[in-house]
Automatic annotation (TrEMBL):
<feature type="domain" description="GMPS ATP-PPase">
    <location>
        <begin position="193"/>
        <end position="387"/>
    </location>
</feature>
<keyword id="KW-0332">GMP biosynthesis</keyword>
<dbReference type="Pfam" id="PF02540">
    <property type="entry name" value="NAD_synthase"/>
</dbReference>
<keyword id="KW-0547">Nucleotide-binding</keyword>
<dbReference type="Pfam" id="PF00958">
    <property type="entry name" value="GMP_synt_C"/>
</dbReference>
<dbReference type="GO" id="GO:0005829">
    <property type="term" value="C:cytosol"/>
</dbReference>
<comment type="pathway">
    <text>Purine metabolism; GMP biosynthesis; GMP from XMP (L-Gln route): step 1/1.</text>
</comment>
<dbReference type="InterPro" id="IPR022955">
    <property type="entry name" value="GMP_synthase"/>
</dbReference>
<dbReference type="InterPro" id="IPR022310">
    <property type="entry name" value="NAD/GMP_synthase"/>
</dbReference>
<dbReference type="InterPro" id="IPR017926">
    <property type="entry name" value="GATASE"/>
</dbReference>
<dbReference type="GO" id="GO:0003921">
    <property type="term" value="F:GMP synthase activity"/>
</dbReference>
<dbReference type="InterPro" id="IPR014729">
    <property type="entry name" value="Rossmann-like_a/b/a_fold"/>
</dbReference>
<protein>
    <recommendedName>
        <fullName>GMP synthase [glutamine-hydrolyzing]</fullName>
        <ecNumber>6.3.5.2</ecNumber>
    </recommendedName>
</protein>
<feature type="binding site">
    <location>
        <begin position="220"/>
        <end position="226"/>
    </location>
    <ligand>
        <name>ATP</name>
    </ligand>
</feature>
<keyword id="KW-0658">Purine biosynthesis</keyword>
<feature type="active site">
    <location>
        <position position="166"/>
    </location>
</feature>
<keyword id="KW-0315">Glutamine amidotransferase</keyword>
Length: 513
């Protein structure tokens, strides 16, 4: 793999994704990993990420010069560029001048393996205080900015290069091309990491672990569990049984989509448990968001446990549980480097202690966009693989106030209109998701038809995001918003007002509860 050394900024995951987009498998390792341990992983190349430290700070993470003796190709980015310069005998200075945000880069190295043929001036994304003042011996300096005389360097013979800016962010022009040139041209790597490759590899891994044992999987209706289950099914067929809990908090048509489209596409054995009455009973009169979540979580476990016990009884035992855990979760929980398909005897998602399955987590090494590609490769329809995220507690946390059947019907109708109009306008791919929220405890006066009404507002919360950690409100076209508003107030009896949430995250979260 290409190893991305994480110096503690949020960019390491983005770099790892970009490396994979260039067709080469990558993994993230902490900067605290000793160099011999890192080299034992036989990296095809190493990328040193940016980070929040100054190389002068006490305990600042550094690069062990032994890395450069190993003749592994290395690319330094931002802090990684400076740490690399320092480790190779160059000099890093505190210039006292910070460059932050879009900056003009002037390319001077017309022969540069990294930058040749690109426009002479590029807008790139910068974020640094210190600067490389002297390049290491044998390195050609190939670009500068107004405040940074050394903004890129390379030593092609030693397959080493680096840039002061962030080529991984979309704001850096030709950033992906620069990364690609390092990987393909300087490091000499072949781009052969594809979804088809993942599929074959994972199917084999699952077969060898599961053998002839039985497996179950809870389907949430979301992309991750749908793809994980389809993959396991491809590997072990009807040894897998899926459970879909209808908690009554689903959106319009969701259950049918799972029962019909998903089963048709995969041939998976599916058990649906209709537990809506039980969930609504337990939620009656509850308004506090955390309490709602706890109740929904608890009822979900009860239901799933009962279904699992039934299946185990019918199948003569079930040993494995499939989980759709993704690579970002693995990295964030500090767990391994993602190569293991299996983590045994471990409870996740709040499943109780005595429900002991061994976990099969076939998506542990993948990012969300790769899961989507894999799903398509497995033959899942676009409506399933391109779905926007939807929270486990469902509409239960999108009704502000107590949840009941009538309010659910109102929200479901409004939400269906929003989804329909957004799809028709072709904006689905532009946004991350668009929660539709019913302010059930708020009333507003309106006039509809001949009379005064006293109804409820619906909130639209369209957001753009890369990973849901931060988000911005999406600038949807006004005429689309007008159509949505006109239809909701016209077609949904209880609603006489539609409002738009224009808050970024932070300070707002994506969901309202
Ligand atoms: P927030 O509201 O925290 O949401 O900005 C971030 C992302 O997580 C989703 N979300 C959930 N997903 N169970 C889930 O499976 C939950 O309880 C839950 N709460 C929020 C939310 O839709 C957004 O994509």
């Amino acid at each position: 793999p290409v190893l991305v050394v994480d110096f503690g900024a949020q960019y390491a995951q983005l770099i790892a994704r970009r490396v994979r987009e260039a067709g080469i498998y990558s993994e993230i390792v902490p900067s605290s990993m000793p160099v011999d341990e890192l080299l034992a992983k036989q990296p095809a190349a190493v990328v040193l990420s940016g980070g929040p430290s100054s190389v002068y700070a006490e305990n600042a993470p550094s690069v062990d010069p032994a890395l450069f003796d190993a003749e592994v190709p290395v690319f330094g980015i931002c802090y990684g560029f400076q740490a690399m310069a320092q480790a190779l005998g160059g000099r890093v200075d505190r210039t006292g001048r910070r460059e932050y945000g879009a900056t003009g880069l002037t390319v001077t190295g017309t022969e540069s393996a990294l930058l040749h043929g690109l426009p002479e001036s590029l807008d790139v994304w910068m974020s640094h205080g210190d600067s490389v003042a002297e390049a290491p011996e044998g390195f050609a300096v190939t670009a500068h900015t107004p405040d940074t005389p050394i903004a890129a360097f390379e030593n092609v013979d030693r397959r080493l290069a680096g840039v002061q800016y962030h080529p991984e962010v979309v704001h850096s022009q030709h950033g992906q091309e620069v990364l690609r040139r390092f990987l393909h041209d300087i490091a000499g790597l072949k781009p052969d990491w594809t979804p088809g490759h993942i599929l074959t590899e994972q199917v084999e891994a699952i077969r060898s672990v599961v053998g002839t044992e039985k497996v179950i999987c809870g389907l949430s209706g979301g992309v991750d569990s749908a793809v994980a289950a389809a993959l396991v099914h491809r590997a072990v067929g009807d040894q897998l049984t899926c459970v879909f809990v209808d908690h009554g908090l689903l959106r319009q048509g969701e259950r049918e989509q799972v029962e019909r489209d998903y089963v048709a596409a995969t041939g998976i054995r599916l058990v649906t448990v209709d537990a809506s009455a039980q969930f609504l009973g337990a939620l009656a009169g509850v308004t506090d968001p955390e309490t709602k979540r706890k109740i929904i979580g608890r009822e979900f476990i009860r239901t799933f446990e009962a279904a699992a016990a039934d299946i185990a009884a019918a199948e003569g035992g079930v040993r494995f549980l499939v989980q759709g855990t993704l690579y970002p979760d693995v990295v964030e929980s500090g767990g391994g480097t993602g190569t293991a398909t299996i983590k045994s005897h471990h409870n996740v998602g709040g499943l109780p202690e005595d429900l002991t399955f061994e976990l099969v987590e076939p998506l542990r090494t993948l990012f969300k966009d790769e899961v989507r590609l894999l799903g398509a490769e497995l033959g899942l329809p676009p409506e399933i693989v391109q779905r926007h995220p939807f929270p486990g507690p469902g509409l239960g946390i999108r009704i502000i106030g107590a949840v009941d059947a009538e309010r659910l019907a109102t929200l479901r109708a409004a939400d269906a209109i929003v989804r329909e109009e957004m799809t028709a306008a072709g904006v689905d791919a532009e946004i991350w998701q668009c929660p539709v929220v019913l302010l059930a405890d708020v009333r507003s006066v309106g006039v509809q038809g001949d009379g005064r009404t006293y109804g409820h507002p619906i909130v639209l919360r369209p957001v753009s995001s890369e990973d849901a950690m931060t988000a911005d409100w999406s600038r949807l076209p006004y005429d689309l918003l007008a159509r949505i508003s006109g239809r909701i107030t016209g077609e949904v009896a209880e609603v006489n007002r539609v409002v738009l949430d224009v808050t970024s995250k932070p300070p707002g979260t994506i969901e309202w509860e």
